[in-house]
Amino acid sequence: MSGGPSQQLLSELASRPGGNSWADKLIRWVFISLSVMFLAALLISPLMIVLTSAFAKGASIYLKSFVDEDTFAAIRLTLTIALIVVPLNTLFGIAAAWAIAKFEFRGKSILITAIDLPIAVSPVISGLIYILLFGSQGWFGLWLQAHDISVIFALPGMLLATMFVTFPYVARELIPLMQQLGNDEEEAAITMGAGGLMTFIRVTLPKIRWGLIYGMILTNARAMGEFGAVSVVSGHIRGLTNTMPLHIEILYNEYNYVGAFAVASLLMVLAIITLLIKTVIEWRGLRG
Amino acid sequence: MPDPLSVLTSMSITLDQITKRYQNTPVVNDVSLEVGDGEFFVLLGASGSGKSTLLRAIAGLTGVDHGRISLHGRDVTQVSPRKREVGFVFQNYALFKHMSVADNIEFALRVRGVKSAERRARRQELLKLVALEGMDDRLPTQLSGGQQQRVAVARALAHKPQVLLMDEPFGALDAKIREELRRTIREVQRELKISTILVTHDQEEAFALADRIGVMNLGRLLEVGRPEELYARPATRFVATFLGAANLLLARQTAQGIRVGATPVTTSLDKLDQRAELRREHEVVAMLRPEEIALAEHRDSLNSIYLGAGKVETIGFTGAFERLRVRMLEADKATLSADADEDNLAILDVTRTQHEQRLLPLTVGQSVAVGVRRIHVLPTPLSSYSVYATTAVAVETLKQHPLLVDLATRMKTRIITHVEPHLGQVVPTKSQAPLAGVAVIAAGSNAVTQLEWLLQRGTCEVLILPEQYVPITRVLIHWTGEEVRRATLSVAASVLRHVPAEATYLNILPETESEASKPAGMRELLDARSEAQAVHGLEMRTELHYGDTVPLLQRELSQQNSHMLILGVIDHADVKQRFDALLQQSANCPVLLVFRADDSSSVGKRV
Lengths: 288, 607
Fold this sequence. Notes:
heterodimer; A: 0% strand; B: alpha/beta; CATH 2.40.50.100; 9-stranded mixed beta sheet; 29 strands
């Protein structure tokens, strides 16, 4: 998953005759500056605003805004959700990708479409689905009430909504990879006497690990940052069902800009940490 | 025949009537094969011939629809691939890219829980065997293609499998490395004496490696034999042209010997088939290898048998040899080859050594005398096709029939057309020259009278084609008497080599004697099957039925119109009296009638 074409290909492109004309240089310059300008306008400037607003009243105020029980609870809840959702969706994603890449069965195309569904459906609607199913007026609402199980406005509902929204990422990443890598190595392992589980752990998993890690990182990022679907099912109960993105909204609506942007910057730091982990793993992977 | 028991014990791979279908089309069609202990067997065929599927079936990576697979006497048809104890080498190496060479080779041993010291010893031994010592810690990506495939071979051998299977192992390598690796593999195989099947499309590779070669086409295993045997005396057109280049000519076999065109060619060139039925004059397919053709300036300076005059069309240089194409100058309908042009002039492929080139330098357009040193007559009974109809339009339509076109192109032979306005009307005198090849007529109400007309003129095989055509999936074989068995089987084998269909022999006994005649009927089935297999290399199913022949055949044919009937008949009268109804009514299925007059006694007297 390390990005971009190889050094070899780039140097070959650069060595092509006529590559040093002024038109070529101009085109290169235009493309590079366009990319940088887009990044600056759409990505870097908002991030800078987040940071400057967070530190607008000094570092001590910034740090103080974390010393708040509700904020703490929101951070804890977000991490809990991510910790549960990422492994589960990794498992489901592998299973779905395996089924699609290795077997022929009826309704395969329906399964592929179904995996893509969460990307196509608006997150708010994915939250509403669970309200309709498990809410007090929903299909299972009465039964759940009778058994004293709370799904909506509680952790289970938020987990369900987050899982729904993040389901496609691992599977989407793995399906083309598995189809492209083929079956030869697994078949070789089987002819050498390896069983199904051993073949999977020793042969398939190492083969797909970059795609898998990438899918997991995407899942994690979305799980921590999801707003729409979680917002519908959470009920915004401070200290109980508020995740970080929801908490940021509440703080913002209360005109607590420093607090809002401080939590936002923390969310940003978490994202950067995920990216760092990915880079480190990739780098070590490349070194052998 | 060797003792069957001793054969069983020394065979390490036995395939019995393996069939594998994809969407009802057989990709591996009734293949039976025995590979001996320590033998290096090469399966040769074009892509799509079913050879890789067969190899994967032996390893258990593909299931089979029919048949049995035994490895060293153990029936493994239902055994999972991980328990078959085979080594498999893939075309694209299939090395575990994240593991070092050492880990790759030790994988099978690790699976079996072998201790680390023992694993290391075995690994060293294997690396030495494939000449890769000291490469233990490399990753596959750090090795060249040839080295990677060596690792793959070592890895496949690590668990001491009983059988080594290789699927185009040199396919992704360049010529030089290919040759080197080929030598290594041959040495390793000799040293370990492991039974090996290698799949390839490269005939040169097959010749270099094989103890025996099996040639596959359209899912069938056509011929099996030692390389030099198959090259010199192929039995089928496909093998003749697939193993090296071959010129196929239509010749006539007479009591005196072979005649190519107007030129008599003596019989001493190759052993002739002396069976009674072949002694009458008939058309045969003669194979001339390009290197067996001699060129000279004049007929007199030719010290081989003179074929005719020719003109050099093209000359090409290929290093050790010179390749020429020579157009024969005498237009003779009897000397047609697949390569003939519109004027029916045969074009011959000729190769000459450097020495021959120096003796007689040739230029394009030069006239030469063409001679031949050795002719091999293919034992196939189907030489060419002659289409008969009453009008020119009907002849043309019939000539375009998909089944006929398929057969003719696959057999690399010609379709000759005859417009006979009186077809089936005037009874001709018997003195006319015998007709050549298989006669083809259209099905319909006139078919039977036309058929009689042809039989009286001495035709032996008549193909009756229906207007509607569905690709054939099943060929039914039946004959009315033992006298025509051999001829029918040989025709059926020839047809089935060129049609991807399954074959079934129907033996039909009268209903009244069902119990008493059952053993005899079964014996006939077994005899027929073993003869088909031994003499014609044809694998077929057998079915025993009780009842009246004609209604039974009709019923079988009407089940599906993708069936074809090959019917052997001895008695002239039979055609009109018994099969009249069958030929009229089963007009949806192609029927190939094989007729042999019951004249074995008279031939015996004459000779």
